[in-house]
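Need C-alpha cells for this chain, all 209 residues.
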Amino acid sequence: MNNRTNSTYIFATVGLVFFAILLYQFFGDNPSPYILSVVETRKQKDYQFKNASDSPIKEADKATFEGLSYFPAAENYRIKAVFTPAAGRDTLVLQTTKAEKRKMLKAGILDFELFDHKYKLSAFTHIGQAQDELFIPFKDLTSGVSTYGGGRYVEVSITNLNDIWLDFNKAYNPSCLYNESYSCPIPPSENKLAVEIFAGEKMYGEKHK
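Here are the C-alpha cells for all 209 residues:
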C-alpha cells in the first residue's frame, strides 16, 4: 500500500515539475502583462464557446468540449504595421466555404516585417459595419498542417493610423471549422503568406488528427 502511495506521489511530483518547465519555456518566470492578457482572453473564449447560446460549437459537442488549441503566446508575433488605404472604396467579392459570394469593401494594404522579411496583406471591411476595424483573412505555411487548411482570420484596429498593430496571437479559426452551417470567407490568393505563422489558434478536434 505504501509503495502504491509513494508511486502516485512520485508521478504527481514529476508531472508538476514537467508542467512548470513547460510554463517557464513558454513564458519565462515573469510573463509580461501582454502575454497574461492573451492567456486570459483565450480562457474567456473557451468559456464562451462551451457555454454561450450563440457559440459555434454544436450543442451535442459542448459536453466534451475542452477548449481550443493554441500556439504559445509570443511577443514577436505582435507586429507594428503600416496601413495604406485603398484609393477608392471598391466592393470586392470573396468566395465562401459554401460557394457563396460575400461582398466586402477593400480597405487597403497592411505592410509589416516578420523575422527580417517584409510581407503585406490585403485588408477588408464589412459592408454596413464600422470602418475602423480591418478584417484580414489569411493563409500561411502552417495552413493544412498545424492550422486549419481553409485559413484563419485576424482583425486590426485603425483608430490611430500612427499606432497599428497586427497581432497574430489573436488569429482565429472561422466558425465553419466548428459547425458546417456557417458560411465563411476564404482568404484571397494575395493573402497567402510564404512563412509559418506559429501563433494564434491551431486546428481543432478530430480534424487535427
